[in-house]
Design goal:
By secondary structure, the protein is α/β, with parallel strands linked by helices. The protein has helices at 15-22, 39-46, 58-63, 65-70, 85-91, 108-112, 137-143, 146-156, 162-175, 181-191, 204-214, 217-231, 245-259, 290-295, 328-333, and strands spanning 29-32, 50-55, 75-79, 97-103, 232-242, 278-280, 303-309. α2 links the parallel β1 and β2. The structure holds S-adenosylmethionine (SAM).
Length: 337
């Protein structure tokens, strides 16, 4: 059931740079892989594009109905995952598109609604599921082995004290299962006592790890890049905005693999001859302007990477190019039948 609770609007990040990287828009067909509050989609529609917009959150799709009505015939909303973006575009009637944009992560609406369980600052159920179905953060915290929790928090949260945190979680859940965000935040805070010089709350990294794990965010991003390669026309643009190093590293590795001539290796000499499927618009990532960073703190960690599809046939679908963390065995353990 979609939530009807209103929350603060999401401010689109790096919008001018996104539009510039996607351009020209008029008359073209574009996929907004992360519809959210429709900030990018609205701007693309205003520029004359036809848009297929995707979101895995049923609330975002429900709230987008008004925009569909305004732009009759030029906007199709699809509830689904962006790992599937080529299939969703085809279901909307487009076999090839001029651009794909993705603004990775959670929206302000998701963070602001306590009942979604994304924020350690608000008391709510320990949920964190963008899709509002499947395994929740509470399921993960209450059911996984300690060693798996350590790996998740250590790898996906880049938390050096992961082992101590998982030990405390296991001790506390033996007394009573975790149910709320604040219970988990207090547990982490007990291990990592807060120091006055700390810029971020001690639970930030643990919450990030659980969110990424629950939503399989890194696997989703890797598969979205492969799907974009399949659906983009020659000359089509791929624009990705990320917010932390694990995501950006993945995009960087994909572009390096697809847009830079490699020498191959003794074991994989054919890599040398793999045709390049993308050309990078600019080597390296763009950041938000100082002005935007001051106005919208969320934009401070944003990194934008863009590339243009060549006419080479799609590359290998081997996910090893992404260097994804080895958590596949934990993922299956975290998904009870
Ligand atoms: C940062 S917000 C996008 C905001 C949007 N650019 C705007 O200007 O309003 C990210 C959105 O992507 C959605 N999302 C995240 N991962 C997704 C996935 N794998 N598939 C589809 N949607 C996803 C989230 O539900 C969220 O609504």
């Amino acid at each position: 059931m979609p939530n009807a609770v209103p929350s603060s609007p999401h401010i689109p990040v790096m919008l001018p740079q996104v539009l510039q990287a996607l351009s020209p828009l008029e008359g073209g067909v574009f996929i907004d892989a992360t519809f959210g509050a429709g900030g990018y989609t609205g701007a693309m529609l205003d520029a004359g594009a036809q848009v297929v917009a995707i979101d895995r959150d049923p609330d975002a799709i429900a709230a987008g109905a008004a925009l569909v009505a305004i732009h009759e015939g030029r906007l199709t909303l699809q509830h689904g995952r962006f790992s599937n973006l080529d299939v969703l575009a085809k279901a909307s009637g487009f076999d090839a598109v001029d651009g794909v944009v993705a603004d990775i992560g959670v929206s302000s609406m998701q963070i602001d609604q306590a009942e979604r369980g994304f924020s350690f600052q608000k008391e709510g159920p320990l949920d964190m599921r963008m899709e509002q179905s499947g395994v929740s953060a509470a399921d993960v915290v209450n059911s996984l082995q300690r060693s798996d929790l350590t790996r998740i928090i250590g790898i996906l949260g880049e938390e050096r004290q992961a082992s101590r945190i998982s030990a405390e979680i296991v001790e506390q859940r033996a007394k009573a299962p975790f149910e709320t965000t604040k219970q988990l935040a207090a547990c982490v805070e007990k291990v990592l006592s807060r120091k006055p010089k700390d810029r971020i709350h001690p639970a930030t990294r643990t919450f990030q790890a659980l969110r990424i794990f629950v939503n399989r965010e890194l696997e989703e991003l890797a598969d979205a890049l492969l799907a974009a390669e399949r659906i983009l026309k020659p000359g089509g643009r791929l624009v990705i905005v990320t917010f932390h190093s694990l995501e950006d590293r993945l995009v960087k590795r994909f572009f390096k693999d697809r847009a830079e001539q490699s020498g191959g290796s003794r074991h994989l000499p054919e890599a040398q001859n793999a045709p390049l499927t993308f050309q990078q618009v600019k080597r390296g990532a763009l950041a938000a302007s100082r002005e935007e960073s001051e106005q919208n703190p969320r934009s401070r960690s944003a990194k934008l990477r863009a590339a243009v599809r060549t006419d080479a046939p799609v590359g290998s679908d081997d996910r090893s190019v992404f260097g994804l963390p080895r958590l596949a065995d934990v993922v299956s353990a975290g998904r009870p039948a």
